[in-house]
Amino acid sequence: MQHKDHYAALGLPSSASLADIKKAFRQQASVHHPDRNDSPQAPARFRAVQEAYEVLSDPDRRKAYDDNRQRNLLDNPLETARAIWLDYFGRLV
């Protein structure tokens, strides 16, 4: 199962403030907006940035996401580490 890391989508640590989240969203959305970026991956990355912002900017949704993220890390640390590794290095290609 593919886990989405909303913090990684915005390039933020999990300790980021709401102001940090808003700033990162504006920056990432500008970079990946399909009207400004001709890359074939731009629409998918733009959607990922939008989804990350929608979750992390809402206090209730962020708490639920953080709780689930913590559970996943503790329940299956090897699979979680693998998913994080692949997500991180997949974006570098």
From TrEMBL:
Chain segments carrying region Disordered: 23-43
SMART domains: DnaJ
Top-rank lineage group of the source organism: Bacteria
Any one Pfam family match given in the protein's UniProt record, by short name: DnaJ
GO function terms (MF aspect): protein folding chaperone; protein-folding chaperone binding; unfolded protein binding
Residue runs in coiled coils: none
Gene Ontology CC, one term: cytoplasm
Domain J intervals: 5-69
Protein name per the record: Molecular chaperone DnaJ
